[in-house]
Amino acid sequence: MHAKYLNLFAVILLFGIGATLLASFTFQEKEPWTPEQLLSPESLAATLNDPQAKQPIVICIGPAAPIKNSIDMGATKEKENLDKLKKQLKNTPKDAAIVLYCGCCPFAKCPNIRPAFSLLNQMKFENHKLLDIPENIKANWIDQGYPVNE
Amino acid sequence: MPTTLNNSDFFKTLLNIMKINYLVVLLSLVAWPSLLQAQDSDIAIGQPVPEITLPNPQGDTLTLSSYKGKVVLIDFWASWCAPCVAEQDELAALYKTYKKEGFEIYGVSLDSKKASWLNMIQKKKITWPQVSDLKYWSSPVAKAYNLHELPFNLLIDQEGNVIAKNLHGKALAEKISEIIK
User: Fold this and answer.
1) Measured between alpha carbons, how far is B22 from B28 in angstroms, rounded to an integer?
2) Residue A85 CB: number of other CB atoms within 10 A?
3) Which residues of A touch B (CB under 8 A)?
């Protein structure tokens, strides 16, 4: 076998394996939300702080409901709380602006966000978003000085 | 000069590539969890920890300093913190092994709902001391210990000075084993 073909093969193989590894670390299982459905904390805080702005329905699906005026649904990893969420939104217009958040831990470890967001997808909501909390509610909301429930 | 390789050279090259990839995977697996768990508090190794005086589930005040003379793991957790809850079984095993050797666990919960806290204590059959002011991240303890995320723990010696910070799993078991001989 010619060395140049072997080298070419080796480069392609190395690239292929590298790309697969990178992909496996970068992309997790398909999430129920799209990147466009992630809402930044800065953006939500600005809306909550603006008395003229139309306010979304903000629902806590994790612990303590720290965000100002948010509805405490309890952890939606529990079926009873997921049912509670379904009941809460039963008569809500499908185009209502809804923001879900948890913040117990980073997205990869959070047991609450996927069941809740999937439920809203199933209920055919059209304007629901997930608060993008890369670390936790303490680091990404409370410590930023964003509005909290007293 | 002819540039041909036989099958043996081909497989040697292939083997080398596989070795490199194996190393990449191994290094990633070692580095990734430590990056994810990276957290530090302002309390340095060797320093005394701030006092904690909080109620236990029965409402009785339990101070951290009352465990002086023992090696104590201060476990900051909450029932809503999935990794914290997952860790409780490992802590139970350590507690069972070393309790008689002067080891104690002092669980500090950042829960906000008493029912959730008590249910998880019962569910995980936690037998070591537990305290909470049920103030979530607003707890003065979270501020005193500069907590940013859970789980977090501190291992303190008989005098209340920090021996180790935020060790989990095998690293924690090895450290406790090393201290309590």
Assistant:
1) 10
2) 21
3) 1-4, 6, 10, 13-14, 17-18, 21, 25, 62-64, 66, 75, 104-106, 109-111, 135-139, 142-143
Q: Is the ipTM value over 0.90, yes or no?
A: no
**CB neighbours of A23 closer than 8 A, spacing ≥ 6?**
none
| DSSP class of B50 | P
Residue showing tokens 């903000």:
A58
In one-letter notation, the amino acid at residue A4 is: K
CB A71 within 8 A of CB A59: yes
Among residues A93, A12, A34, the alpha carbon closest in space to that of B13 is found at: A12
Residue of chain B minimizing CA distance to A21: B25
Q: What share of chain B is helix, strand, coil (3-state, %, to 5)?
A: 45, 20, 35
Q: Chain B: residue nearest A136 by CA?
A: B149
End-to-end CA distance of chain A: 74
Tens of pLDDT along B67-99?
999 999 999 999 999 999 999 999 999 999 999
